[in-house]
């Protein structure tokens, strides 16, 4: 499965082997479908028009990076083709109350001409549970789902989080000080704690903590500079 814009060509063993999966055979059509399906779907007015489309692409890449970190020599811990396609489409119904199951049903409907029955069933399984996180007994979740869930959280933290919050605050005519003060009044700590418990793997948690620290350091410096300090 090939990743579009900002992406790379995935070395799926299925794609490179003699037998191509139905997804690999139809990857150009799937990428076109992806772009068209997300066109005009903007969750919030301050978000960029391709926000959810690009989020899906980043989650696919991030999920595979996590796999390579957590399972260094076990590429087949997941099926790349179904994992990538599920990642791409996982938020196709974002904004609806039941966006997991509605999204899974809708994605399968869209993808039906381009995937085998087995692939559709796998894509459905992943999308339908992508937001069903457990804080304890995480071993009950399949590995591919855990990787997708962690990638999904990690994509909301770090530099993109700063950009997204700036955009939201600017839209609501809030000030740079309003942004920075959240990091000293407990607002950001509560946000960070809420997602911290939902991370599945210790390796993902380490990345999460590094991203959280980056955001805190940035805001603390911003607050100092807003108060007229040199740095
Ligand atoms: Fe979601
Ligand atoms: Fe998501």
Could you give the topology of this structure?
Layout: H1 13-16, H2 22-25, H3 27-38, H4 51-70, H5 80-89, H6 99-111, H7 117-128, H8 143-154, H9 159-171, H10 176-181, H11 187-196, H12 202-226
The protein binds fe (ii) ion (2 copies).
Residues 55, 90-91, 152 line the site of one fe (ii) ion (FE2).
Describe this structure in words.
- This protein is 61% helix and 0% strand.
- By secondary structure, the protein is an all-alpha fold.
- The protein folds into 2 domains: 13-133, no CATH class; 159-226, no CATH class.
- Helix 4 (51-70) packs antiparallel against helix 5 (80-89) and helix 4 (51-70) crosses helix 8.
- The longest helix is centred in the last third of the chain and has 25 residues, at 202-226.
- The chain is globular.
- The N and C termini lie far apart (45 Å).
- The structure holds fe (ii) ion (2 copies).
- The site of one fe (ii) ion has 6 residues, from loops.
